Backbone:
């Protein structure tokens, strides 16, 4: 007989929700519009989602905005995505500061245009004291690149004598990741009906509950977030042990 799903009253709201915001291009194509139109609508969906996450009591929201593999796209589209990051910060930073949102950006900083690096640094500095919602934007981010950059810094610390090789374990290693001060995601959502991680939070998602939704990112908002949270709450997280009900 099927196990009854735990009721929502028992299961807590996820502390950390991570989202692969996918499907902007297909959303635009359905409307015979250029892909960049889909990306612009995607920013509106991000705005709605940041607000809805705060209302739902989520503490950490991490979104995948540009991957290390997205450089393979035509230059025009890559430029449009960078312009949207500029526009989002220019339009929303004051509001984020006011509303208690702490902004972080994870991903490689090398090779980013100077003004983008400045925009990121300024957004992080201006929101550093905020604690209501932690919004982390993964930009020029790839999980493999993040782990390789961390390994490089670990190697540097070993060769300079700051760290003993025999002291390296998972706990020590993860302090070298971009997500050093974030808890791991409880739920990882991907929109657009694709079933893959595309290099997102490979280390951090070890025990994340994966939720794949058949909604294109520009259509995402309060309802879709509530659905993802509801699906998450019905899952039984075991972390390699036995069922949580018998714990
Ligand atoms: C997600 O939408 C945004 C980014 C990857 C930057 P896509 O641009 O991947 O849209 P689809 O997957 O082609 O529909
Ligand atoms: C993942 O989506 C990257 C972002 C959402 C920023 P992609 O659209 O780039 O992933 P693939 O190419 O379908 O795997
Ligand atoms: Mg895509």
Residues:
């Amino acid at each position: 007989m099927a196990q009854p799903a735990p009721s929502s009253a028992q299961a807590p709201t996820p502390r950390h929700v991570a989202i692969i915001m996918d499907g902007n291009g297909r959303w635009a194509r359905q409307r015979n519009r250029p892909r960049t139109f889909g990306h612009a609508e995607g920013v509106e969906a991000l705005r709605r989602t940041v607000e809805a996450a705060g209302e739902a009591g989520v503490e950490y929201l991490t979104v995948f905005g540009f991957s290390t593999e997205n450089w393979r796209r035509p230059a025009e589209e890559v430029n449009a995505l960078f312009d949207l990051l500029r526009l989002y910060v220019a339009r929303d930073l004051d509001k984020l500061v006011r509303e208690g949102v702490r902004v972080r950006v994870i991903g490689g900083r090398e090779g980013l245009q100077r003004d983008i690096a400045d925009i990121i640094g300024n957004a992080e500095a201006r929101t550093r004291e905020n604690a209501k919602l932690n919004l982390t934007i993964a930009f020029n981010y790839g999980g493999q690149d993040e782990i390789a950059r961390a390994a490089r810094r670990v190697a540097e610390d070993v060769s300079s004598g700051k760290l003993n090789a025999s002291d390296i374990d998972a706990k020590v290693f993860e302090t070298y990741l971009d997500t050093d001060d974030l808890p791991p995601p409880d739920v990882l959502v991907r929109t657009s009906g694709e079933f893959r991680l595309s290099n997102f939070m490979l280390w951090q998602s070890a025990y994340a509950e994966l939720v794949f939704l058949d909604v294109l990112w520009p259509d995402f908002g309060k309802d879709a977030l509530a659905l993802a949270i509801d699906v998450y709450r019905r899952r039984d997280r075991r972390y390699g042990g036995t069922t949580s009900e018998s714990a």
Q: What stands out?
A: Helices lie at 24-30, 35-56, 75-98, 114-126, 143-159, 170-174, 222-233. Strands lie at 16-20, 60-67, 101-106, 133-141, 187-190, 209-212. The chain has a mean pLDDT of 95. The first strand starts at residue 16 and ends at 20.
